[in-house]
Write a structure and sequence with these properties.
Aspartate Aminotransferase, domain 1, alpha/beta, Aspartate Aminotransferase, domain 2, single chain, binds 4'-deoxy-4'-aminopyridoxal-5'-phosphate
Length: 406
């Protein structure tokens, strides 16, 4: 039988209408393309921002899924509320309160990863043409999210410690932005942390000039050393205008796709309606399993083990980086998180270097795509989480062969 397409009686076909302009305006992530190349066996990858899979508490999580089914499969497999499972919201509220920000379950919405919280806040606040301020460089998928919303994305000048408050003040006065998006602790991609005094200044500017703050904090609990810095949301002026985004991805497992949003009431209510349009609610069984895990396992002890392993890995990377990068390269020692950000000397181009690196079995992410405006081709991001210190040493030897440092 002829297929309908080749049938002589098929009507002439008009092409379907074009995609929405916003869908074609946003480029795919070059990092995902690089990650595909680095999936080859034997490649030592400093590219992906992935947590170490051998550190997942597989047994504990599996037992929690079993328990979620055993306690009430009917509930675990059923539709549930958009705001999230009450026991998970309670457990997150207790953790957030323990970290210094008084929070009740009602202040929170469970989201499908913190990435969804970012998407919800963006579609709730940002109209095409609205100005959104970002750190420069910043998290790539946040740039994609703002581009999809048709935002005018404006970089705020930063130094080695993050946002420069005087520059922020000047840009806010000039551009009248709606939102400042910040990853103030162990930022992706730079690993840097905004000091408390600057957080206070950012909060004060936001309050005085009338600005929403989006504080994205997936890495804050991965501190290896140094003193905790309070959330931006905790500083005077920020309380009534900050959407704080948290995630279980880096402390439990990213495949769970569990995050949370803490926001002032009106913004939270609007984001809940936006979430209804997006996915109705986050997976019930995943939420109940996570809530069970938080009740029965010691997440803080688990985070302690992850921190210790990552600290060793960071140290291995820092110990070998000087010999692996060309003389005149610069980088900072992050006090936590997953990334080291480096800058090669004048004349080097990290994107060009990557091809040769992959051929030698080592990978990193060039820094250019994280930038808004003119990219800095000399920058690169190295993630230290997914290899042992020994493997990191081998990877750095390979890198030295590529850069000519070795
Ligand atoms: N924000 C930042 C800064 C990130 O680096 C990431 C993950 N790489 C996310 C948000 C998204 O995390 P989640 O898995 O919670 O969606």
């Amino acid at each position: 039988m002829p297929s309908p397409a080749s049938s002589p009686t098929a009507p002439p076909a008009a092409p379907p209408p074009a995609f929405a302009a916003r869908a074609t305006a946003v480029a795919g992530s070059p990092i995902r393309e690089i990650l595909a190349l680095t999936a080859r066996p034997g490649v030592i990858s400093f590219a992906g921002g992935l947590p170490a899979p051998e550190l997942f508490d597989t047994q504990g999580l599996r037992a929690s899924y079993d328990a979620a089914f055993a306690e009430s499969a009917g509930r675990a497999l059923q539709y549930s509320t958009t705001e999230g499972a009450p026991e998970l919201r309670e457990a997150v509220a207790a953790r957030v309160t323990a970290r210094g920000l008084e929070t009740s379950a009602q202040d929170l919405v469970v989201t499908t990863g913190s990435q969804q919280a970012l998407a919800l806040i963006t579609s709730t606040l940002v109209e095409p043409g609205d100005a959104v301020l970002v750190e420069n460089p910043t998290y790539l998928a946040a740039l994609q999210c703002f581009a999809l919303a048709g935002a005018r994305v404006i970089p705020v000048p930063c130094d080695g410690e993050g946002i420069l408050p005087d520059a922020l003040e000047e840009i806010v006065a000039r551009e009248r932005p709606k939102v400042l998006y910040s990853v103030p602790t162990f930022q992706n991609p730079t690993g840097r942390t905004l000091p408390g005094a600057r957080r206070a200044a950012v909060a004060e500017i936001a309050a005085r000039r009338g600005l929403w703050l989006v504080e994205d904090d997936p890495y804050g609990e991965l501190r290896f050393e140094g003193a905790e810095v309070p959330w931006l949301a905790a500083y005077p002026g920020a309380q009534d205008r900050t959407a704080l985004l948290g995630s279980f991805s880096k402390v439990m497992a990213p495949g769970l796709r569990l995050g949370w949003l803490r926001a002032p009431e009106a913004l939270r209510r609007a984001a809940v309606v936006t979430k209804q349009a997006a996915d109705l609610h986050t997976s019930t069984v995943d939420q109940l399993a996570a809530a069970h895990y938080l009740r029965t396992s010691d997440l803080d002890a688990h985070i302690g083990a992850v921190r210790a392993a990552y600290r060793d890995r960071r140290d291995a990377l820092l110990a070998g980086l000087g010999a692996a990068l060309p003389a005149g390269s610069a980088w900072k020692r992050p006090e936590g998180g997953m990334f080291v950000w480096a800058r090669l000397p004048a004349g080097y181009d990290a994107t060009g270097l990557l091809r040769a690196a992959i051929a030698r079995g080592v990978a990193f992410v060039p820094g250019a795509p994280f930038h808004t405006g003119t990219p800095d081709p000399r920058t690169l991001r190295l993630s230290f989480t997914t290899h042992t210190p020994e493997e990191i040493g081998v990877g750095l030897e390979r890198l030295a062969g590529v850069t000519g440092a070795g």
